[in-house]
Specification:
Layout: H1 2-16, H2 25-38, E1 42-43, E2 55-59, E3 62-64, E4 79-88, E5 91-100, H3 106-125, H4 132-145, E6 149-150, E7 156-158, E8 165-169, E9 186-189, E10 192-194, E11 200-202, E12 209-211, E13 217-219, E14 222-225, E15 232-233
Antiparallel strand pairs: 1-4, 2-4, 3-12, 4-5, 6-10, 7-8, 7-9, 9-14, 10-13, 11-12, 14-15
This protein binds magnesium ion (MG).
The site of magnesium ion has 5 residues, from loops.
Length: 241
């Protein structure tokens, strides 16, 4: 999982200079797939539940699960959430990052920053002996303190031999609830935070999740290893919103 997760992290670092106005989301997907395969690994989203591409690429009001398309061309001022999974020798890594496309307005900047901070607040609580919802509550508290909506329908997850394993890791909850976190457990923690309402809808393509009010949504995710102290961030990279 350290190797698969490092490949995920390196893929995001490759994308940082690639994502700019005029690029199609299918071009991003192609770059992701090529890079992952160049490492002898497999893009784990491809074919998972029937998903047709290697990366989920979601623009602005799209929360997650956007399908890459040659018709979707990034424009200055948008932001784009890219979610990538990698399988290497039977083990998975999973992460997401919302990138600005050129210059982004201050409201979107703030949403990106607070969503990233919410992930970091969650990670601070992700240690052996704490309860799962200590993580959830830390994410929710930080996001809602800024007036944002925390998506309920989609959650983080355990990860290992399967991309999605138990337990579910909600981005909302009550401190002191849920299973006690054990050293050695691997989780994908992934706040999806909306500028407006927490409500979401699925588009007619059956995949793309959008905010009900069509306001923007940001998404950051890391795969981590629970330890007695701070977690090991397996998908650690140098990008920041
Ligand atoms: Mg995930």
């Amino acid at each position: 999982m350290r190797i698969s997760s490092r490949i995920v992290a390196e893929t995001f670092e490759e994308l940082a200079d690639f994502i700019r106005p005029g690029i199609s989301t299918i071009a991003i997907d192609a770059k992701v797939e090529k890079f992952i395969r160049s490492k002898g690994a497999y893009p784990a989203f491809k074919g998972l539940y029937g998903f047709p591409a290697s990366a989920c690429i979601s623009i602005d009001e799209e929360v997650v699960h956007g399908i890459p398309s040659k018709k979707r061309i990034l424009a200055e001022g948008q932001f784009v959430s890219v979610d990538i999974g990698v399988r290497y020798k039977g083990y998975h890594g999973d992460a997401a990052f919302t990138f600005p496309v050129g210059a982004v307005d201050p409201l979107k900047r703030q949403l990106m920053k607070v969503t990233w901070e919410s992930l970091m607040k969650g990670l601070e609580k992700a240690r052996a002996g704490n309860r799962l919802q200590d993580v959830s509550a830390a994410i929710q508290t930080h996001a809602e303190a800024h007036g944002y909506g925390v998506v309920r329908e989609l959650v983080g997850h355990g990860i290992g031999k399967e991309l999605h394993e138990d337990p579910q890791v909600p981005n909302y909850g009550q401190p002191g609830r849920g299973p006690v976190l054990q050293e050695g457990v691997t989780l994908a923690i992934e706040p999806m935070i909306n500028m407006g309402t927490p409500q979401v809808q699925t588009l007619p393509d059956g995949w793309t999740i959008v905010t009900a009010d069509r306001k923007p949504s940001a998404h950051y995710e890391h795969t981590i290893l629970i330890r007695s102290g701070e977690p090991e961030i397996l998908t650690k990279h140098h990008l920041r919103p």
